[in-house]
Amino acid sequence: MTPGSTSETPSEPGVSLTRDLRWLGVGLVLLVVQQFAIRGLGEGDIETGARRAVFFATTAALCLLALRFRRIHGAWLISAGIFLNLVPMAAHGGLMPIALETIEASGHFPEITTNDVGKPIPYSKDIVLAREDIWFEPLSDRYSVSLPGYGGNIYSIGDFVLFAGLGAAAIQLAIPTRTRRAERQTA
Fold first, then answer.
1. Whole-angstrom Cα distance, residue 179 to residue 163?
2. How many other C-beta atoms can be found within 10 angstroms of the C-beta atom of residue 135?
3. Where would I find the beta strands (DSSP E) of 32-123?
């Protein structure tokens, strides 16, 4: 080995991109599986248990997968945001806790009442609890946001960190770097 060289073998142009696209494909499959678990499974006890397990496992996998792209600064924020969401989910059986008080104050979901406390919200990843029953409450879904064209929803601090990571990654990938310019010229 010569001074300054590394034990890694340099990859051919395009090999890294192909590998990254495969991992992005894995991430998309995980997201599709999550959406199926949320929207496609029924509301029986078995389906609810399956939804919890699938959503929690795929979320943990996405947290690790984001680190695969660690050279992209936003990937660290994406992974951190997902991890921040995993903490309260792990404490509540794989579902994200949301306080009834938060739901009522938001005005977004008037169909959810005190009768729903302790129950998973149908076709979602959330469980309604009294605020005092939520472990890691600052990390739970608690911030109400209304967006034009989308409507209202309630988010966690982990969601905002994840969104910031997506924005940072998009900006970083949109700005040409010396390495990416060189890869384009050799392709």
1. 26
2. 13
3. 96-99
Reading the block at residue 94, the tokens are 């794989």
CB atoms within 10 A of CB 40: 11
**Closest by Cα among 152, 63, 136 to 103:** 152
Residue 143, helix vs strand vs coil: strand
Report the sign of the C-alpha dihedral through residues 157, 158, 160, 164, in that order: positive
Tell me: pLDDT of 30 over 60. Answer: yes
Q: How far is residue 40's CA from residue 123's CA, in Å, rounded to a whole number?
A: 8
Compute the average pLDDT of residues 106-112. Answer: 89
Mean pLDDT for 134-143 is: 95
pLDDT tens-digit map of 168-183: 988 988 887 666 566 6
Q: State the pairing for strand pair 126-129/96-99.
A: parallel
Average pLDDT over residues 15-19: 65
CA 129, 133, 138, 140 torsion: positive or negative? negative
